[in-house]
Amino acid sequence: MRFQRATLASRILLAVLAIVGLTMAAGLALYVSVTRETADRNAEERAAGIATSVADLPLVAQAMTDPGVRAELRAAADHVVADTGASYVVVIGADGVRYTHPIAALIGQRVEEPVVALDGKVHTGVDNGSLGRSANARVPVRNAAGAPIGEVSVGIRESDVSARVGQVVWPVVFYTALVLAIGVAASLILAHAIKRVTFGLEPAEIVGLVQEREAMLHGIREGVIAFDPDGRVNVLNDEARRLLDLPAAQLGQRLPELVPAGRLRDLLSGAVAGSDMVVVTDNNLLVLNRMPVIVAGRNAGWVVTIRDRTELEALVRQLDSVEALTTALRAQEHEYSNRLHVLSVLLGIGEVEEATAYAEEVIGESSLAADVVRSRIGPPVVAALLIAKTTVAAERDVEVRLTPGSELPAGDLDYTPLLTVLGNLIDNAVDAVSGAAASSHPRGRVTVELDGSTSDVHLVVSDTGPGIPADRLDDVFVDGYSTKEPRDGGMRRGVGLALVHRLVRRAGGTITATSPAGARFEVRLPLWTRAKETVS
What we know:
By secondary structure, the chain is α+β, with helices and mostly antiparallel strands. The chain has helices at 2-5, 8-55, 58-63, 70-84, 158-197, 203-217, 238-244, 255-258, 263-269, 310-348, 352-376, 380-395, 416-433, 496-507; strands spanning 88-93, 123-129, 132-142, 148-157, 223-227, 233-236, 277-280, 285-295, 298-308, 398-402, 444-451, 456-463, 510-514, 520-526. The longest helix has 48 residues, at 8-55.
């Protein structure tokens, strides 16, 4: 628990100390073990060399049979010990009697172990003798015929070996301590670097942030997609996957790998800047906001929030249409009230014939436009749309005219796409010419041409407004492009034509914009047979 509550720097320091300490301790132990084995082996070889040299002396072989030279032999053994640094040189006869020994009391005494060199071989090993633990070598003493007649035992004390090992090991211990100190310094530097990368957050804080981020990102109803400074996706919540149609997207991918070139990619990358930027996809109308992320004065990438305004925008547009129809009906009610007042006065003063003529004139004007539309446009929903748009436009001093050659036969077709396209184009045209008048037309005029004689409906909507600049004809279908001020109620400009363009393209049709004298939109739109419901 204490380790879990420790700071990141403390954890790294303890981990590095443990790793380096254990590694160096194991290495040091192995090195000491190998060094000791090597030192023991060298000591045994050195002892064997000294013993062989002593055994080859003629004095040694002579002492085996001549007691008179044994005093001289002991002096020679003492000289060898002094000259070579050996711990002892012991000459032993075949019967196990010592002829020389550093301890005078043991001279003439028998050894407890057998005289192993009588087999004619050199024996080495570690001996726990009367002088303590030592590296020992036993070499046979031979007579003139070469037969073993005794042995020479030479030993080098373990303390001497340990001293040599210590001389070698202490530099290694110093090196180990130096490496450990370097490891501590490196751990502190690493901890500082990691804290800088993590903006000073401790592991527990990072875990908490990750948990909170996951809960927040996957719980909100807005799409969130974030990029690191290299342009790689590092945050992508479920709503963003749905709205951008990226079900297979993976973290770490770059934007060009996820989104094709176009307005959506430009908004996500920041190539097109602005707030509440509108983009129309195949399925949704989205509002995007891009914001750079600066943490501790460093660029940490950017975040894009995505809101789905499809249903809200549709409701706002429906409300706008209803409001326009309500205004038109209110104006018509006022107009008809005035006419009924005139008719009432005429009847009141006895001008029956004049009142009859006036009533027929009023009825003729109100039914003429509707009769013309119904006689040429077969589908009732399309005819109703044209009549409603004509009425609303008239209240804005705009004339909506159906060309004499227009004709759309009724059929069992799905007219929903046509209603959306026609309604948006007429609305845009009425907005363009509302309140403006050309010199040859006191009122603004919108002309509608419909031709349903083929499998594709041919639709042309033109107006007498100011038109479209030649260099912006390709921009009129771009999401959010508009030269008009936003309408009251929050309904966005630059969406209608983008929606029309998407709808026509998805239906397999074409739409073009020109501006010979005012704006002119020409559409070819396939209509499909309405799906029939089966009743069981």
